[in-house]
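--- STAGE predict ---
source: upstream dedup step, 1 unique chain passed
mode: sequence only
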Amino acid sequence: MPSRRAVLIAAFCLATPLVAHAQGMMRFASANFAAAQEKGGPVIVHIDATWCPTCRAQKPILDRLLGQPKYAAVRAFSVDYDSEKPVMRELSAPDRSTILVFSKGKEVARSTGDTSEDKIAALLDKGL
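--- STAGE serialize ---
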């Protein structure tokens, strides 16, 4: 029978990635996006599809970057390419694997299909 300490350590190890992800990307909701925009801080939106290999390459990069103290103020939203077409039209972003960067309520940069961590970091920096 495992000790209580072993069970607690295992629970922490299983929960940590979930907490980190929750602090990184949030599912897009117009009200939450508008509230984040109103605050004026940096906001990013990632147009994502579960079946897209480029999106799958971007996700861990974004998660890593958003976990850094430098990007602590960034509010990040994920838009599902397959089910959130109205949001994509609203953002004028028709392609999956698109990352949009907003600062002070205005779009300041966007990239589609980029999987270079350095280039994605430079993109995020434009919102700081």
